[in-house]
Amino acid sequence: MEYTFFDVIKTGLALVALITPPARYFYNKWRTNRGDMSWRAVKKAILKLKKQLDENNITPKCIVGVGRAGAIAASVLSHQFGTRYIPIVVLNFAYEMRLKGGVLHRVPIAVDVSQIKEGLEDVLLLGADIMSGGTMVECMKVLDKRNCDVTAIACLFLNSDITLVQPKYFVEKRAKRPQYPWMPIPHEKIFEKLSLSAPYETDSKQVEKQESKPDAKDSNQTSA
Protein backbone atom coordinates (compact mmCIF):
# COMPACT_ATOMS: atom_id res chain seq x y z
CA MET A 1 0.00 0.00 0.00
CA GLU A 2 1.45 3.31 -1.06
CA TYR A 3 1.25 6.41 1.09
CA THR A 4 0.87 9.81 -0.47
CA PHE A 5 2.42 12.98 0.85
CA PHE A 6 -0.90 14.05 2.31
CA ASP A 7 -1.24 10.71 4.15
CA VAL A 8 2.12 11.33 5.82
CA ILE A 9 1.06 14.83 6.80
CA LYS A 10 -2.21 13.59 8.27
CA THR A 11 -0.44 10.84 10.21
CA GLY A 12 2.07 13.33 11.56
CA LEU A 13 -0.62 15.75 12.67
CA ALA A 14 -2.53 12.92 14.35
CA LEU A 15 0.59 11.93 16.29
CA VAL A 16 1.18 15.53 17.36
CA ALA A 17 -2.44 15.84 18.53
CA LEU A 18 -2.04 12.59 20.47
CA ILE A 19 1.28 13.45 22.12
CA THR A 20 0.74 17.16 22.90
CA PRO A 21 -1.81 16.91 25.79
CA PRO A 22 0.19 14.45 27.97
CA ALA A 23 3.45 16.23 27.10
CA ARG A 24 1.96 19.57 28.17
CA TYR A 25 0.55 18.00 31.34
CA PHE A 26 3.89 16.54 32.46
CA TYR A 27 5.76 19.71 31.45
CA ASN A 28 3.41 21.88 33.52
CA LYS A 29 3.70 19.45 36.44
CA TRP A 30 7.48 19.62 36.22
CA ARG A 31 7.38 23.42 36.21
CA THR A 32 4.98 23.44 39.15
CA ASN A 33 7.27 21.20 41.20
CA ARG A 34 10.12 23.60 40.48
CA GLY A 35 7.93 26.51 41.53
CA ASP A 36 7.98 28.03 38.03
CA MET A 37 4.91 29.99 37.02
CA SER A 38 3.99 30.94 33.45
CA TRP A 39 2.05 34.05 32.41
CA ARG A 40 -0.74 31.74 31.29
CA ALA A 41 -0.92 30.11 34.74
CA VAL A 42 -1.00 33.51 36.46
CA LYS A 43 -3.82 34.74 34.23
CA LYS A 44 -5.74 31.49 34.77
CA ALA A 45 -5.40 31.86 38.56
CA ILE A 46 -6.64 35.46 38.43
CA LEU A 47 -9.71 34.41 36.44
CA LYS A 48 -10.47 31.71 39.01
CA LEU A 49 -10.15 34.28 41.80
CA LYS A 50 -12.51 36.63 39.95
CA LYS A 51 -15.04 33.81 39.73
CA GLN A 52 -14.85 33.29 43.51
CA LEU A 53 -15.40 37.00 44.09
CA ASP A 54 -18.40 37.03 41.73
CA GLU A 55 -19.94 34.02 43.46
CA ASN A 56 -19.74 35.90 46.76
CA ASN A 57 -20.90 39.25 45.32
CA ILE A 58 -17.55 40.91 46.05
CA THR A 59 -16.96 44.05 43.98
CA PRO A 60 -14.41 46.23 45.77
CA LYS A 61 -14.13 49.96 45.38
CA CYS A 62 -10.35 49.69 45.53
CA ILE A 63 -7.74 46.93 45.23
CA VAL A 64 -4.59 47.23 47.28
CA GLY A 65 -1.87 45.11 45.71
CA VAL A 66 0.87 43.86 48.00
CA GLY A 67 4.32 44.46 46.52
CA ARG A 68 5.35 44.24 42.87
CA ALA A 69 3.79 40.82 42.28
CA GLY A 70 0.58 41.97 43.95
CA ALA A 71 0.60 45.07 41.73
CA ILE A 72 0.56 42.91 38.59
CA ALA A 73 -2.16 40.63 39.96
CA ALA A 74 -4.23 43.65 41.06
CA SER A 75 -3.95 45.32 37.65
CA VAL A 76 -5.05 42.20 35.75
CA LEU A 77 -7.88 41.54 38.23
CA SER A 78 -9.10 45.13 37.97
CA HIS A 79 -9.56 44.71 34.21
CA GLN A 80 -11.75 41.64 34.77
CA PHE A 81 -14.52 43.82 36.23
CA GLY A 82 -15.30 45.08 32.74
CA THR A 83 -16.37 48.67 32.20
CA ARG A 84 -16.51 49.42 35.92
CA TYR A 85 -13.31 51.16 36.95
CA ILE A 86 -11.69 49.57 40.00
CA PRO A 87 -8.68 51.66 41.04
CA ILE A 88 -5.57 49.92 42.33
CA VAL A 89 -3.06 51.08 44.90
CA VAL A 90 0.27 49.37 45.54
CA LEU A 91 1.67 48.93 49.02
CA ASN A 92 5.38 48.31 48.51
CA PHE A 93 7.77 46.62 50.86
CA ALA A 94 11.51 46.57 51.31
CA TYR A 95 12.96 43.50 52.99
CA GLU A 96 15.72 43.67 55.53
CA MET A 97 17.80 40.51 55.89
CA ARG A 98 18.71 39.64 59.46
CA LEU A 99 20.93 36.76 60.43
CA LYS A 100 20.14 35.50 63.91
CA GLY A 101 21.13 32.19 65.40
CA GLY A 102 22.40 30.96 62.04
CA VAL A 103 19.01 31.58 60.42
CA LEU A 104 18.44 34.23 57.76
CA HIS A 105 15.16 36.07 58.29
CA ARG A 106 13.42 38.40 55.85
CA VAL A 107 11.69 41.22 57.70
CA PRO A 108 9.11 43.24 55.71
CA ILE A 109 9.30 47.03 55.99
CA ALA A 110 6.52 49.10 54.37
CA VAL A 111 7.66 51.89 52.02
CA ASP A 112 5.74 54.54 50.04
CA VAL A 113 2.95 54.38 52.62
CA SER A 114 1.84 57.87 51.56
CA GLN A 115 0.20 56.27 48.49
CA ILE A 116 -2.44 54.78 50.80
CA LYS A 117 -5.11 57.44 51.34
CA GLU A 118 -6.91 57.84 54.63
CA GLY A 119 -10.29 56.17 54.92
CA LEU A 120 -10.34 53.96 51.82
CA GLU A 121 -13.61 52.03 51.73
CA ASP A 122 -14.46 48.52 50.57
CA VAL A 123 -10.84 47.49 50.01
CA LEU A 124 -9.74 44.15 48.57
CA LEU A 125 -6.28 43.40 49.92
CA LEU A 126 -4.57 41.24 47.30
CA GLY A 127 -1.28 39.40 47.40
CA ALA A 128 0.05 37.27 44.56
CA ASP A 129 1.09 34.70 47.14
CA ILE A 130 1.13 34.34 50.91
CA MET A 131 3.91 32.06 52.10
CA SER A 132 4.43 33.08 55.72
CA GLY A 133 1.86 35.83 56.26
CA GLY A 134 4.37 38.28 57.71
CA THR A 135 4.04 40.79 54.89
CA MET A 136 0.24 40.55 54.86
CA VAL A 137 0.13 41.21 58.61
CA GLU A 138 2.21 44.36 58.10
CA CYS A 139 -0.18 45.40 55.31
CA MET A 140 -3.17 45.13 57.61
CA LYS A 141 -1.36 47.23 60.23
CA VAL A 142 -0.70 50.00 57.70
CA LEU A 143 -4.29 50.00 56.43
CA ASP A 144 -5.67 49.94 59.96
CA LYS A 145 -3.58 52.97 60.93
CA ARG A 146 -5.03 54.82 57.94
CA ASN A 147 -8.60 53.82 58.84
CA CYS A 148 -9.10 51.79 55.67
CA ASP A 149 -12.04 49.42 55.47
CA VAL A 150 -10.68 46.03 54.31
CA THR A 151 -13.69 43.91 53.36
CA ALA A 152 -11.76 40.96 51.91
CA ILE A 153 -8.26 39.48 51.84
CA ALA A 154 -7.26 37.36 48.86
CA CYS A 155 -4.28 35.81 47.13
CA LEU A 156 -3.59 33.57 44.18
CA PHE A 157 -1.31 31.06 45.91
CA LEU A 158 -1.31 30.14 49.59
CA ASN A 159 1.10 28.18 51.74
CA SER A 160 -0.94 25.40 53.36
CA ASP A 161 1.07 25.65 56.60
CA ILE A 162 0.45 29.35 57.15
CA THR A 163 -0.78 30.40 60.60
CA LEU A 164 -0.36 34.19 60.77
CA VAL A 165 -3.22 35.06 58.43
CA GLN A 166 -5.93 33.13 56.61
CA PRO A 167 -7.29 34.82 53.47
CA LYS A 168 -10.90 34.02 52.68
CA TYR A 169 -10.27 33.82 48.95
CA PHE A 170 -7.39 31.99 47.30
CA VAL A 171 -6.93 29.80 44.23
CA GLU A 172 -4.31 27.18 44.99
CA LYS A 173 -2.24 25.91 47.89
CA ARG A 174 1.50 25.62 47.31
CA ALA A 175 4.31 24.53 49.60
CA LYS A 176 6.93 26.43 47.60
CA ARG A 177 7.08 30.12 46.77
CA PRO A 178 6.21 30.55 43.06
CA GLN A 179 8.84 31.77 40.62
CA TYR A 180 6.89 34.25 38.50
CA PRO A 181 7.73 34.88 34.83
CA TRP A 182 8.73 38.50 35.53
CA MET A 183 11.35 37.46 38.10
CA PRO A 184 14.83 37.13 36.52
CA ILE A 185 16.44 35.44 39.53
CA PRO A 186 14.97 32.41 41.36
CA HIS A 187 14.52 32.98 45.09
CA GLU A 188 17.04 30.30 46.02
CA LYS A 189 19.67 31.94 43.76
CA ILE A 190 19.41 35.21 45.67
CA PHE A 191 21.30 33.70 48.60
CA GLU A 192 24.03 32.41 46.32
CA LYS A 193 24.55 35.97 45.08
CA LEU A 194 24.70 37.17 48.67
CA SER A 195 27.15 34.34 49.50
CA LEU A 196 24.80 33.16 52.23
CA SER A 197 23.82 29.56 52.86
CA ALA A 198 21.50 30.03 55.83
CA PRO A 199 17.85 28.89 55.64
CA TYR A 200 15.21 31.29 54.40
CA GLU A 201 12.41 32.27 56.76
CA THR A 202 9.89 35.10 56.64
CA ASP A 203 7.94 34.77 59.85
CA SER A 204 8.20 38.15 61.61
CA LYS A 205 7.17 36.61 64.93
CA GLN A 206 10.04 34.16 64.73
CA VAL A 207 12.37 37.09 64.14
CA GLU A 208 11.10 38.80 67.28
CA LYS A 209 11.65 35.62 69.28
CA GLN A 210 15.15 35.23 67.88
CA GLU A 211 16.00 38.87 68.64
CA SER A 212 14.72 38.58 72.19
CA LYS A 213 17.15 35.71 72.85
CA PRO A 214 20.83 36.66 73.05
CA ASP A 215 23.13 34.42 71.01
CA ALA A 216 25.05 31.91 73.08
CA LYS A 217 28.28 33.14 71.50
CA ASP A 218 27.56 36.75 72.43
CA SER A 219 26.62 35.84 76.00
CA ASN A 220 29.85 33.89 76.43
CA GLN A 221 31.87 36.86 75.20
CA THR A 222 29.99 39.15 77.58
CA SER A 223 30.60 36.90 80.55
CA ALA A 224 34.27 36.63 79.64
Please explain how this structure is put together.
By secondary structure, the protein is of the alpha/beta class. It has 7 helices and 7 strands, in the order ααβαβββαββαβαα. It has a 7-stranded mixed beta sheet with strand order 6-5-4-1-2-3-7. Strand 1, helix 3 and strand 2 form a beta-alpha-beta unit. The longest helix has 30 residues.
| Percent in helix | 40-55%
Order of strands, main sheet, comes to 6-5-4-1-2-3-7
Q: How do the SSEs run, as a string of H and E? A: HHEHEEEHEEHEHH
Biggest sheet layout: 7 strands, mixed
Strand content: 15-25%
Low-confidence stretches: 194-224
The DSSP helix count reads: 7
Q: Please give the number of β-strands.
A: 7
Radius of gyration: 23 Å
Give the overall shape.
globular
Return the average pLDDT rounded to an integer: 77
Q: Strand pairing plus helix content: what structural class?
A: alpha/beta
End-to-end CA span: 94 Å
List the helices and strands and how they pair.
Elements: H1 5-34, H2 39-55, E1 62-66, H3 67-79, E2 88-100, E3 103-111, E4 123-130, H4 134-145, E5 150-158, E6 172-173, H5 187-193, E7 200-201, H6 204-212, H7 216-223
Parallel strand pairs: 1-2, 1-4, 3-7, 4-5, 5-6
Antiparallel strand pairs: 2-3
